[in-house]
Amino acid sequence: xxxxxxxxxxxxxxxxxxxxxxxxxxxxxxxxxxxxxxxxxxxxxxxxxxxxxxxxxxxxxxxxxxxxxxxxxxxxxxxxxxxxxxxxxxxxxxxxxxxxxxxxxxxxxxxxxxxxxxxxxxxxxxxxxxxxxxxxxxxxxxxxxxxxxxxxxxxxxxxxxxxxxxxxxxxxxxxxxxxxxx
Amino acid sequence: xxxxxxxxxxxxxxxxxxxxxxxxxxxxxxxxxxxxxxxxxxxxxxxxxxxxxxxxxxxxxxxxxxxxxxxxxxxxxxxxxxxxxxxxxxxxxxxxxxxxxxxxxxxxxxxxxxxxxxxxxxxxxxxxxxxxxxxxxxxxxxxxxxxxxxxxxxxxxxxxxxxxxxxxxxxxxxxxxxxxxxxxxxxxxxxxxxxxxxxxxxxxxxx
Lengths: 182, 207
Prior knowledge:
The structure holds 2 protein chains of 2 kinds.
Chain A: H1 3-14, H2 18-40, H3 43-60, H4 70-88, H5 90-95, H6 110-128, H7 132-143, H8 148-155, H9 159-176
Chain B: H1 5-9, H2 12-16, H3 22-34, H4 36-53, H5 62-66, H6 68-82, H7 89-113, E1 115-120, E2 123-128, H8 134-144, H9 146-150, H10 155-174, H11 187-206
Helix pairs in contact in B: 3-4, 8-10
């Protein structure tokens, strides 16, 4: 993301230009949706949560002093909301209807499609069962492709700790997905 | 210098996704050539990433993106209308503590309301109403300030209290030779008198 454009939009918003906030949302919405979706693993929840992230940003942006970059700050808000959401709604996920998320399947073989769906489900469960920090680090690195140094800023940890968390997360995923290996 | 496995372990992912410095990369490469345990660990990392790569992409419908900003705006307005603010957790916790303190204070003050001011001559007594003495004490309180007690008791209760007062007064004067009027008795004397009257009544009832 272009930090210069972002800073300009923040400046305009702080001066009272509401439209600048809309532009800021448009700039980051896909990235934030992807992050919260990978965290909560439910499309409907992620759609709602991604909007909540920007509601929180709207209310806090006037106090944002730019001590960290906007992107770091935004990712931190999204990660925290997702982690809280996961905790709060863990019970609901057990009793709710199955997620109607339809992944994009490219295969023309029904058997392969079935196997892919099973793998998707297994990855969902494996990621959801990761400890909080490991899950956040894994999502930020693997899906968001943030640098370790940036993840360290988002999470408020050292780079070494982030690398260790990522390694541990991957080992746990490996264990959870062992039965899918050919 | 011999490189230990634990020094290499956390560099294996970096080796896989090519984020190591050339020196670190060389270090890992040399170690993997000689350590079968770390080599196996690295192979497992590779196979896990291969599996994760097969994960499906999830894309919301185009309409979701089109409506995204209006939906955010609507949520912001709704929160402003309902006055729901984002309150920091510590403030929220403080609010709960304050609420319970106020509640506690309210209960305490209510209990204080149930205290009776009783005047005996120049002296005045304040004490918390024991349940069994409540009616009789309310009676004397009513005599001092009838309006203040009215809200606490029903009319039927009032009649009973008046009868109880008359009964007690009658009993008191029956004993004869009293230097003080009933209102001048202190609280202990009143309680003793009431107990004696109850004993007498009890004796009459069973004999």
